[in-house]
Amino acid sequence: MKVFRGLPNDRARAPCALTIGNFDGVHRGHQALLERVRGAAAGLGIEAAVMTFEPHPREYFARKSGDLSRAPTRIASLRDKLQSLDNAGIDRVIVEHFNAHFASITPEDFTDRILVDGLHVKWLMVGDDFCYGARRAGNIATLMAAGAKHGFHVETLPTVMLGDQRVSSSAVRAALADGDFARTRALLGHSYSMSGHVIHGEKLGRTLGFPTLNLRVAHRPALSGIFVVQVHGLAAQPLPAVASLGVRPTVTDSGRVLLEVHVFDYAQACYGKMVRVEFLSKIRDEEKYTDLATLTAAIARDCDTARDWFSQRAGALTATDRI
Global pTM? Predict the structure, then answer.
């Protein structure tokens, strides 16, 4: 899969079948859309492409207003999003930097400069609530009119439902916030995980007797707390572990989010390695303790809880669970 930061250069501007969106989480609704794009691209003999944005447009406007509470939490990092799009068989991803200039583009300029001249779009699919251009002035009707003018076909994908619930990134965020990983899995079509390179930490966990591998989290995640997890990428099989995802209020007031994972019975150095942490069950919310002794006792209880979880499910985790 080819990834472009902004529009491709002239030599890379091959015709494409395109879809546009934030694709946070790449849930079942996204997957249905991507499958349709791949089919259209194959039928036309062109590449299947996705345009997505960084940061999330709502995050940009929240920062601009000074009210970060209006910004959505993130289901996935850009790395994990791109991996999901690659897994879905997409040939080309355009990551547009969403800034003041991009936010000011008129619907006409968006279709003329970006879709037609920039990407050579021949077929386009969007969600049935798609809006585009400055102040969201463009809609499905104006997009279809532009397609008729410039010679690209436009289709919309109806809402994908799971029972009586609309499959959406908002629904996935709500399930993660509730620690409902069964619901999350149903919406995503797979278990929830986060990936990243193992970085050096402050070695506090080692001092307390619970060494951790640490992953930097650049975005505000959709979940926080203490979790039963398993770690992929360190051994042939996923390794059982317990994880803390949050701001570590007992040891710092920086507000920086970190994913700390204590892998059971594993003592090898793994700095710099790429790992994937699969979330299985929530143990509790993050708490602030009065001292390190109280924190250490809480970690020990969390480890016991996680070990019991794995013991009760020994052999029950199938190959599908480990994808």
Answer: 0.91
